[in-house]
Amino acid sequence: MSGSLPDYAVITPVRDEAGNLPRTAASMVAQSTLPARWLIVDDGSTDGTRELAESLAAEHDWISVVSAGPRTGTRARGGPIVRAFEHGLRTLAERPEVVVKMDADLELPPDCYERLLEAFAADTRAGVAGALVMNEIRGALKGDVRPEFVHGALKAYRAACLEDIGGLRASMGWDGIDEYAARARNWRVHVLEDVVVVHFGRRGAKQPWYRARFEEGVANHYMGYLSSFLALRVVYRMAVETPPVLGGLAIGAGFLHSRFTGLARVDDPLAIAQLRSEQRERIRSLVRHPSPPNRWRGQPAVASRTE
Q1: Do 28 and 40 contact (CB within 8 A), yes or no?
Q2: What is d(CA 60, CA 64) in angstroms, rounded to the nearest whole number?
């Protein structure tokens, strides 16, 4: 079937991933359907990541390395990654039918991209697709994103959909607002739950917990969350987050700080309307059929629901 599959390119923003990139590269080389281009965008690495990426490019003519330019300041989530991805997208000589944003700390099954491409081939309105991304924690695989969500570590976009939604937003929350924007424009989102990708990192693990949770609240405001839905999230995360209570409060503090300081929301009214419509339906569903607590465990602040 590979001859009938759409072509694709993978863009991987990297910064100081020398410890993880070899495993990711090994699983990319082993793919049953290779990309037209794997573009590694180095965002100011200082640990040998750039040199490692260039050695991979020397071995495989479908791998390229470009620089996103040095950046300064503390580690941030969302904005730098999206800017590096968009820079890579601009440098592609030809735009393939499917474009993938992939992290450098993943291990993929050999048929991962073949299966994702099959999903795009089978549904002409498939705009976003992804696999089930799991974290390796003490020898066991656990998810930090509900399985019906597309994890931000590996997101495949039909190029026409990506253009339709105006590209990705350079802000934390990019990997949620993209799906709301897509569904608002009648694109469909698919998660292949039987394709398991191992993620070596964890959501916000490279930041202090309080900063990571505060930024989630900022992202919730940016995405246009309903206050009532945010309140439910805060209460739940107070119960399950580590440390207890404080994690949820930090999310609420980030949201309130953004609201009362007048921080901007995403510049896509259709996406915000879609998000709020789905959140109202989620609230009604919870009222009608209360969920057991573990159904919500690990739900990220910056993901979105598929249909």
Answers
A1: no
A2: 9
How many CA within 13 A on the CB side of residue 287? 7
Q: Which CATH number fits domain 2-199: 1.20.1250.20, 3.90.550.10, 3.40.50.300, 3.30.300.20?
A: 3.90.550.10
Judge if pTM exceeds 0.70.
yes
Distances (CA, A) of 91 to 55, 68, 151: 20, 11, 25
Integer Cα distance of 272 and 294 in angstroms: 27
Q: pLDDT tens digit string along 237-271?
A: 999 888 889 999 999 999 999 999 999 999 999 99
The answer to whether 24 touches 105, Cβ cutoff 8 Å, is: yes
* Strand-pair partners of 156: 100, 129
> 26 near 108, Cβ under 8 Å?
no
